[in-house]
Amino acid sequence: MFVPKYRRRAIYGTLRRRVGGIFRELCRQVGIELVEGHAMPDHIHPCLSIPPKFSVAYTVGFLKGKSAVRIHREFLGQKRNFTGLHFWAKGYCVSTVGLDEQVIRAYIRHQEAEERRIEQLYIQGL
């Protein structure tokens, strides 16, 4: 799971529609399989199949670094000098997937509806 800096709700509109393509393209460049993914306004859940030759830290660093440059270039109007500009927060959440891959993929696919349901329960509880 990756989150934007300060967990801002920055992934919406055109960026939300395009971020999947950015991640798919980056994964294709290095031979990583993007099995499943979903973008929410304040985080992204990718399910990746990483070849043994790459470490998880390398893969996450590559994806976050290169996608941040692309996001700044395409959506935030920054054409050069990317030093010091950040889009993603430091750190990430990783879990390995084994026999429960289908459960994880279903969670990623349906997380938006689940978050809406939880939000409605919270609003009703007030």
How would you summarize this macromolecular structure in one to three sentences?
It is built from 3 helices and 2 strands; from the N terminus they run αββαα. With 126 residues, the chain is mostly helical. It holds the Pfam family Y1_Tnp.
The number of helical runs is: 3
The backbone outline, from C-alpha atoms, is: globular
The CATH architecture comes to: 2-Layer Sandwich
Strand residue percentage? 5-15%
Domain Transposase IS200-like: 1-111
Protein name: Transposase IS200-family protein
GO molecular function: DNA binding; transposase activity
Pfam family, one: Y1_Tnp
What does this structure look like?
The structure is a single chain. With 126 residues, this protein is mainly alpha-helical. Helix content is 49%, strand content 12%. The protein has a two-stranded antiparallel sheet with strand order 1-2. Strand 1 (33-40) and strand 2 form a beta hairpin. The relative contact order is 0.17. The mean pLDDT is 85.
